[in-house]
């Protein structure tokens, strides 16, 4: 747990589920998508695409 | 996102999976050009080989890389729709 304290924002990235478009912000994409329940389907994306998908 | 960055992301996505970027450099260059053109025109990296509907929610499935493993083409031709990824 301690190694994650103070993780710099610059180290976090946006991740997109290739199946359902779920967006995650963190060090890595989740192994299991919480929305569509598929495994190993996240791909790194950029803030611009993430915002476009989220509509913000 | 520039092309180099997109290639890096694709390689990392393919790592430890049963597919890889198309080893045909000329073909790959053309597909990447299409993706980047789509990005420049629409602000987002849609598959260069498929038509968008205009509905953002359904077009989300066309973002590259897409979930091509569910496509018939993956099963029959060992590649995604536009040929960016091929089976190892």
Q: Average the pLDDT over all residues of chain A and give the rounded result.
A: 89
> Order of strands across the biggest sheet of chain A?
2-1-3
The number of helical elements of chain A comes to 1
* Largest interface (CB < 8 Å): A-B, 17 and 19 residues
β-strand amount of chain B: 5-15%
What's the overall geometry of chain B? globular
- The oligomeric state is heterodimer
Main sheet of chain A, how many strands, which sense, barrel?
3 strands, antiparallel
What does this molecule look like?
The complex is a heterodimer of chains A (56) and B (88). Chain A has 56 residues and is of the alpha+beta class. Chain A contains one helix and three strands; from the N terminus they run E-E-E-H. In chain A, strands 2-1-3 form a three-stranded antiparallel β-sheet. Chain B is globular and about 35 Å long. Chain B has 88 residues and is mostly helical. The longest helix of chain B is centred in the middle third of the chain and has 18 residues, at 25-42. In chain B, strands 1-2 form a two-stranded antiparallel ribbon. The A-B interface holds A 16, 18-21, 38, 40-41, 43-46, 48-49, 52-53, 55 and B 1, 5, 9-10, 12-13, 17, 43-45, 56-57, 60-61, 63, 65-67, 70.
């Amino acid at each position: 747990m301690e190694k994650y304290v103070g993780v710099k924002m610059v180290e976090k990235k946006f991740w997109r589920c290739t199946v359902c478009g779920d967006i995650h912000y963190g060090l890595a994409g989740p192994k299991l998508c919480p929305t569509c329940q598929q495994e190993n389907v996240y791909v790194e994306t950029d803030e611009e695409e993430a915002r476009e998908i989220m509509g913000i | 996102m520039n092309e180099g960055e997109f290639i890096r992301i694709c390689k990392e996505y393919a790592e430890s999976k049963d597919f890889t970027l198309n080893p045909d450099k000329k073909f790959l260059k053309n597909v990447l050009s299409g993706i980047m053109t789509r990005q420049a025109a629409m602000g987002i990296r849609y598959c260069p080989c498929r038509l968008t509907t205009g509905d953002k929610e359904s077009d989300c499935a066309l973002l590259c890389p897409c979930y091509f493993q569910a496509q018939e083409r993956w099963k029959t031709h060992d590649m995604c729709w536009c040929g960016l990824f091929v089976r190892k």
